[in-house]
Recover the amino acids of this structure.
């Protein structure tokens, strides 16, 4: 299980900072699929990199920490700076645009070997490891022939499946997947989501899925968080978020979704998010929010509980204003 404690992260641009993640707090439980949603540029991928401890220049954590609890322990954990030692076997990551991650001039097999042998603790002969990989691919209904292919010989969906197999082969307790279905056609998207759900059911581990597509969250996640301009503005069970969204931004996101049988014109969300280089002092959504008051523009809203396991950061919710 993974816990984020007041995590802020930024891109150090020498003369300025892009504050892509601001004071994020939440916890991923065992045996759940947690979704992270929000529009392009709100910091979803940055947050996932921080959760994986993938902090390459110019990205840096400016405060807070991520804790990875070992096994089912409530007390034993490792934190940001040391998570790398647990890559592949305890925590794994499928990056955004993963279809381009595989080396185009090498066959899949050596790439698979290279990645998994780094995380494999037991000494195992190559032949035995190959047998295990083939067995695992078959469990995931993937033909072992993919091992002999070059990445360009595989379709986008197949490459994504290979990467999911790779990320889950060592049975890590946390799997992070960034936009696993983006750029794939609808039928293939469905296959990938089904594969992720099957793997999670089998392993009973924790999975985090980042997607800007609310439909993906509706289909696969148990709980989800909504990001806006670097902050987590609402978090809760997925059905609560869809049926009783509390933050005005979430309400607009849900309101903009097409529904079967409803032909009415959908409202988009007018305006654009604020710059992450110099974000406004008050609520970051205030300039686009139809309920915003002068106070909203001055005071940063605290995250408050608005239901069972349901939290949101909006000043007006604290004042019991029905929205
Ligand atoms: N390497 C980088 N250097 C500087 N700024 C960056 C870098 N990568 C991302 N950013 C900025 O950080 C902010 C958050 O970006 P991030 O990629 O995390 O957003 P996202 O929510 O994943 O967007 P998308 O849905 O488009 O993938 C954006 O303003 C982006 O321009
Ligand atoms: Mg992204």
């Amino acid at each position: 299980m993974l816990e984020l404690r007041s995590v802020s992260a930024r891109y150090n641009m020498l003369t300025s900072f892009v504050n892509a993640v601001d004071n994020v707090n939440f916890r991923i439980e065992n045996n759940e699929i947690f979704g992270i949603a929000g529009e392009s540029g709100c910091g979803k991928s940055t947050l996932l990199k921080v959760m994986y401890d993938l902090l390459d220049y110019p990205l840096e954590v400016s405060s807070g920490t991520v804790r990875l609890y070992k096994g089912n322990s409530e007390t034993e954990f490792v934190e940001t700076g040391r998570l790398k030692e647990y890559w592949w076997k305890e925590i794994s990551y499928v990056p955004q645009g993963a279809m381009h991650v595989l080396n185009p001039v090498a066959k899949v097999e050596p790439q698979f070997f290279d990645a998994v042998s780094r995380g494999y603790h037991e000494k195992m002969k190559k032949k035995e490891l190959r047998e295990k990989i083939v067995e695992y691919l078959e469990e995931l209904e993937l033909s072992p022939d993919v091992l002999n292919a070059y990445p360009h010989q595989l379709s986008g969906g197949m490459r994504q499946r290979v990467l999911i197999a790779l990320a889950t082969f060592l049975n890590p307790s946390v799997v992070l997947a960034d936009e696993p279905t983006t750029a794939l056609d609808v039928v293939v998207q469905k296959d990938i989501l089904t594969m992720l759900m099957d793997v999670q059911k089998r392993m009973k581990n924790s999975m985090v899925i980042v997607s800007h597509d609310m439909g993906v969250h509706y289909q696969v996640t148990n709980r989800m968080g909504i990001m806006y301009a670097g902050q987590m503005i609402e978090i809760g069970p997925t059905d609560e978020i869809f049926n009783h969204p509390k933050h005005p931004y979430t309400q607009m996101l849900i309101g903009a979704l097409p529904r079967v049988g409803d032909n009415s014109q959908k409202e988009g969300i007018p305006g654009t998010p604020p710059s992450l280089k110099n974000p406004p002092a008050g609520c970051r959504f205030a300039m686009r929010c139809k309920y915003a008051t002068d106070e909203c523009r001055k005071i940063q809203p605290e995250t408050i509980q608005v239901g069972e396991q349901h939290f949101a950061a909006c000043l007006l919710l604290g004042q019991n204003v029905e929205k």
In short: The CA atoms of residues 203 and 293 lie 47 Å apart. The domain at 2-228 is CATH 3.40.50.300 (Rossmann fold).
